[in-house]
Amino acid sequence: MSALALAVAHPPRSVADDAAAAIVILGTGLVGGALLRLLEETAARRAPLKLLGVANSRHSLFEPAGLALGQLLPRLEQAAGCDLDAVAAVLLASEQPLRIVIDATPAAAVARRHARWLAQGIHVVTANKIAQGSRLQEWHEVQRARRHGGSEYGDSATVGAGLPALSSLRRLRRSGDRLLALDGVLSGSLSFLFNHYDGSRPFSALLGEARERGYTEPDPRADLSGADVARKLLILARSAGIELEESDVVVEGLVPAHLARLDSDEFLSRLGEIDTFIEHRFREAAAQGRVLRYLASLGEDGSARVGLRAVAADHPCAALRGADNLFAFTSERYRDRPLVVVGPGAGADVTAQALLGDALELIS
User: Fold this and answer.
1) Which residues sit in the known binding site for NADPH?
2) Distance between CA 18 and CA 97 in Å, rounded?
3) CA 10, CA 267: separation in Å to the nearest integer?
4) One of 50, 211, 221, 232 is an active-site residue; which one?
5) CA distances (Å), 284 to each of 88, 255, 271, 273, in order?
6) Which of 112, 203, 230, 270 lies in the 20 to 30 Å Cα band around 216?
7) Under a CB-based contact definition with an 8 Å cutoff, are residues 115 and 128 in contact?
8) Which of 41-45, 97-101, 126-130 has the least mean pLDDT?
9) 50 part of the active site
10) Per-residue pLDDT for 342 more than 90?
11) Binding positions for NADP(+)
């Protein structure tokens, strides 16, 4: 029997039948788990969201009458394999006026579905950067599908973990301004690492701490490679009307080629092999009175670069703390002094808050 055909004889009392939006949540890891906890908190305040399904890479659980949040994850672990085809089916069968997929995964297979869902009139709220931050063709597919389906694409969580970076940039463009350049720290995990690294302990030890805090992906090469930052830079540039392709971004990764080829467990056991390279760059920068920051830059000539840079003490990014992100937008109207957006840029809770905020904004 398909997940969609499951009968619910006695819907749980916590299910909001009068909700304004039906939602399906994809991903139950750090971010997805935090989002489910947020939903439990808001359920007591009668949040206008009705959860019809939840899925991860191994299992999926759908109930047209609605899912109660209590003990949801243990139920999910007993459910059948992941069925992405059921996502649209259960939402389109719903009587709620709004239908929303919330993608809290980093999965390419899920990102490839975004355009299809949008074209069907299903709103997509996402922390997944792949659909908009990969090939330019996929970016255009998302925009066309959104227009065709009359649907919205909530992507605040893709850049800056919900900081008003994308919204500020889009507001500038709507008001007739034009982005000239961008400079900033776009990764909360890399920000944490280089804000705290002072040479007193190995970089690999600090990386382990960042991983335990949930700042990095389980395999931190996803962060250290620079690919994640490059995707964010592409999303920002394209949102500003600058149609860069993936190959236009020069990326300096921090993982040596011989470590990039290993499986995840072996890489984690050999993290210490990164230490010498980072320490050398740190000592080199310190000798010039500078500090290391992993920066993303978009120049007025259209050049795009992501990598480790030694910046002077008076550089805006030199004063960052914790896992802060910083976006400095130079535009025609902010030419002399850039428009700066700064704040926490990593963590499951702030990312989940951005996802919930985008979903609720669709209702308001």
Assistant:
1) 105, 129
2) 10
3) 49
4) 232
5) 54, 19, 21, 19
6) 112
7) no
8) 41-45
9) no
10) yes
11) 27-32
Q: Contact at 8 Å (CB) between 53 and 88?
A: no
Long-range CB pairs of 223-228 (<8 Å, 24+ gap) are 223/187, 223/189, 223/190, 224/190, 224/253, 224/254, 224/255, 224/274, 225/251, 225/253, 225/254, 225/255, 225/260, 226/251, 226/252, 226/253, 226/254, 226/294, 226/306, 226/307, 227/251, 227/253, 228/129, 228/187
pTM metric for this prediction:
0.91
Annotated binding site for L-homoserine: 217
pLDDT tens for 10-69 read 344 345 556 789 999 999 999 999 999 999 888 766 678 999 999 999 999 999 999 998
